[in-house]
tRNA(Met) cytidine acetate ligase
Amino acid sequence: MDVVGIIAEYNPFHNGHLYQLNVVKKKFPKATIIVVMSGNFLERGEPAILDKWTRAREAILNGVNLVIELPVGFCVQPADRFALGAMRILRDLGVTKLVFGAEHASYDFSRLADLTGTIHGDFSIYNESYAKAYQRIVTQETGLDISNPNDLLGLSYAKANLLLGNFLNLYPIQRQAAAYHDQNLPKDSTIASASAIRSGIFTKKADISKYVPKETLEDIKNNLSLSWQDFWPMLRYRISTSSIEELAQIYAMNEGLEYRIKSKLERLGPKATFEEWISSVKSKRYTYTHLSRIAIMILLHVKNSDIEVIEQFPYIRVLGFDETGKAHLNNIKKAIEFPIIAKVSQKIVKNKLELDHQAGLVYEQFNGSRQEYGRIPFRR
């Protein structure tokens, strides 16, 4: 039986995601579909609009068989580390195929991974971000444009697959209609970008009902939709009350960035918004996304040692499943050497889930719903 993997954020779960699931079911009608999903904080350095339990439930109700949480230490990372963390989980769960959306589904991502796996470019130019430098060098090596977000993720998945022994086959699906960053809700389609849908939710100036499944629409109506605006007071407090030495210990803080982060906030004063602060810190060297990820690290007080623990002591955190997903877990659990976690205890938090537990405690301060203790996977 085919076991198909998807790596997702579902922020929120929308019709484009439903389209992808329908393609998988048509291509692999007997497959078990496993999704490795970001939790409450995301790869681009943002809090999720709805919590991980709500988004996992939406996925299961729309045809996913099993949802596993990607630990926050991998969620809030550049594409290569994000991909590697997710792919390790898929490998351990016995996944044989990976389906993902791409702006250029015709690209041979496995071949691109072979061509670019040993890139050694000059990434030290201070008026160019690492991401821009990497894209430029890949284009030079391959002659192909990989600047689009989903193409970049596709290449990262292929490189992770190569690193892990080519354990699965890659199946890119052509991204439909909306571009990744498109802020406009299309009038002639029921598929819109997640960015446009979130914008419609936050501004309350657009009807998103035709772009999301009924479960997502109901959840948006009944739950708080969170953004950086909600978490900014806590982040501002963290920066203001931390010393330069303490900020320097935060994961991914380098090149003296802690001085810039703190001094810009002090100059702006207490009325500054998150957007004003991050725009003042941003430069050609430091992109918005890079700074947003570091902001999450500050918010959660993530240090290098926290990331090392996650990498050295893996686990499988279950967020939701149906009967097919449950059967797959039962079949595979004897082959997995590390814990499959369905319910949180104090012992598990101390030994395995300390960082994810901390992230859950921060998130629940703003959405008002418990994220760790007392939560069990959604079951259909």
User: Anything to note?
Assistant: Residues 346-367 form the longest helix (22 residues). The chain has 17 helices and eight strands. The CA atoms of residues 313 and 352 lie 7 Å apart. The beta strands are 3-8, 32-38, 66-70, 97-102, 169-174, 316-321, 340-341, 378-379.
